[in-house]
Specification:
6-stranded mixed beta sheet, 5-stranded mixed beta sheet, alpha+beta, globular, 279 residues
């Protein structure tokens, strides 16, 4: 009997050890010095946002194949971000690298979905506030607000993929502002914007769910509620809701940060979809 108990104990220990080894192999190295170790690949695109005292002309400044954007070392600027048409297979492009002349630059994302990591590089000190914002006429939604600081102990890489997602409650806020704008503009069919916004949200989310565009909590770092990729939402507004013209941009407030690097890692999910409407 004693030998049977020993055998059972050894078997349980061996089984537990096997499970622990399996878990260790599957848990990503969250404390890795480079996001490449976590994503298990090199980035598909690297963007360097460089803080400068002034803009200096260079031969590559008008090339869309460049990987740099220049912003003031101190003060505010914007980076307007669009995305290549879904299913096009087109790559990243910097369409305007100079945020000095008119206060903004332009970046086009490649086709697909991306995990987004960023860190302050270069010499210690300096920080930058980044607000990811959506706007359309009088509608304004702040998606996320982060602070990036150049730490003395080395780069602090952060998974900030949430910058490119609009949450369930933010979609409602967008529609609420839209119907409030219509009511204040004299539209007699709008008497309670909250009722219209709730219906618009329900209609949109049903289509997002049917089309498999909803990213649940736990799939994107930092999200506390379900969300959709911001450019999927823009496509819905333009193609289904018939309200085009939405813009997405990063509003930057730089306080001495000379180098912000943003790495984009393409996710395996395809963005080549067609809308699936309820029957």
């Amino acid at each position: 009997m004693r030998e049977v108990k020993k055998l059972i104990k050894k078997t349980l220990i061996a089984g537990l050890f096997t499970v622990l080894l399996a878990l260790t192999a599957t848990i990503p190295p969250i404390l890795a010095k480079s996001p490449n170790q976590i994503m298990l690949s090199n980035p598909d695109y690297v963007l360097n946002i460089l803080g400068k005292d002034h803009f200096t002309d260079n031969p590559m400044q008008d090339s869309p194949d460049r990987h740099t954007i220049f912003v003031p070392l101190y003060g505010g600027s914007k980076i307007y971000i669009t995305q290549a048409p879904r299913g096009s297979g087109e790559k990243f492009q910097v369409l305007d690298a100079n945020a000095f002349d008119d206060g903004h630059a332009n970046l086009t994302l490649g086709d697909g979905y991306y995990a987004v990591w960023l860190a302050a590089l270069g010499k210690p000190n300096g920080k930058l506030d980044l607000n990811a914002t959506v706007s359309n006429q009088d509608i304004w939604i702040q998606l996320q607000c982060i602070e990036v600081v150049r730490a003395k102990k080395g780069p602090n890489w952060m998974d900030e993929s949430k910058l490119f997602y609009i949450t369930y409650s933010q979609v409602y806020d967008f529609f609420l502002q839209y119907y409030t704008m219509l009511m204040e503009g004299g539209d007699p069919t709008i008497t309670d914007p909250a009722v219209n916004a709730t219906q618009a949200l329900d209609d949109a989310w049903t289509i997002f769910t049917n089309t498999d565009l909803v990213w649940e909590v736990g799939t994107i770092a930092g999200l506390t509620e379900p969300a959709v990729w911001i450019f999927d939402f823009f496509d819905y507004l333009a193609e289904v809701f018939e309200y085009p013209g939405s813009e997405y941009y990063w509003s930057l407030k730089n306080n001495g940060l000379r180098h912000l690097q943003v790495r984009f890692y393409k996710l395996p999910k395809s963005r080549n979809f067609e809308w699936v409407f309820p029957e």
